Amino acid sequence: MPNQNKNLNDDLASVADKEYLNTDKGKAPAKDEAVSLPKSKMILARKLLNNIKENNERLLGLLAGCLSAEDEAAISIGQISDESFAPTEDLGELRIIEGVFDGENMIGPDGKQYSVPANYASKSKLVEGDILKLTITGSGTFVYKQIGPIERARVVGALERGAAGEYFALSDGKKWRLLTASVTYYKGEAGDEVVILVPKNGESKWAAVENIVRKSE
Fold first, then answer.
1. Is the pTM here over 0.70, yes or no?
2. Which CATH number covers residue 161?
C-alpha cells in the first residue's frame, strides 16, 4: 500500500509538472482580458450616470410627500396592468436616441457624435453633461429636446479670443471653451465680462454663455 501511494503521488506530480510547463513558462493561464475604454467615453459615461443619479434623487424627493406608506403598501407594481398605459405616440419611422451633451455635440449610447445646432445649444444654454433626446424623423430632420439638465454653477470671467477665432472664458486660472454662436449673439468682444454656466460638480471643457457685459468704450 505505501508503494501504491508513492506511485500515485509521483503520477500526480508528473501531471502537475506538465501542466506547469504547458502554460506560459509556469505562469497561470490568462483570465479574461480587461476591456479598456477611451478616457473621453469614460468621462461622458460617468457624467451620464451622475446626471441619472441626480434626477432620480429629485424625483424621489418630489414623490416623497405625495404618497403615504399605506398607499404604497396597498398597490403593488404587479397590480398595474399594461392596459392602464396608453402609447404616447405612433413613432412610425421615427428614431429616438438619448445621449449626453459634450459642450458641442451629443454623444449617443453607441459612442457616435450627433451634431447639435449651435443656435439651439446657445438659446437653451446647454451645459456639458446635460442629457438630450434626439428625434430623427423619416425625412432626416433632427429634433432635440433637453430632458436632463445637470445642476449648474454661475461663474463670472473675462472673454478671450484665440488665434483661430475661437472664444474662451477665463476665471481664477480656469479656462472654458464657448460656442461662437453664443458670443456673437451677445455681440461679445475680447476683454468683455462674460457670465457663464458650468457643471456644479466636476470639471468641464465647455461653458454656456448666460450673458455678456460689454466693456466701456
1. no
2. 2.40.50.140
3-state secondary structure the chain: CHHHHHHHHHHHHHHHHHHHHHCHHHCCCCCCCCCCCCHHHHHHHHHHHHHHHHHHHHHHHHHHCCCCHHHHHHCCHHHCCHHHCCCCCCCCCCEEEEEEECCCEEECCCCCEEECCHHHHHHCCCCCCCEEEEEECCCCCEEEEEEECCCEEEEEEEEEECCCCCEEEEECCEEEEECHHHHHHCCCCCCCEEEEEEECCCCCCECEEEEEECCCC
Domain residue limits at 160:
152-213
Number of domains in the chain: 1
> Does a structural domain hold residue 195?
yes
Over residues 46-91, the pLDDT tens digits come to 777 777 777 666 666 656 655 555 554 444 333 333 333 333 344 5
Residue 206's pLDDT band, with cuts at 50, 70 and 90, is very high
| 4 lies in some domain | no
Kindly state whether residue 196 falls inside one of the protein's structural domains: yes
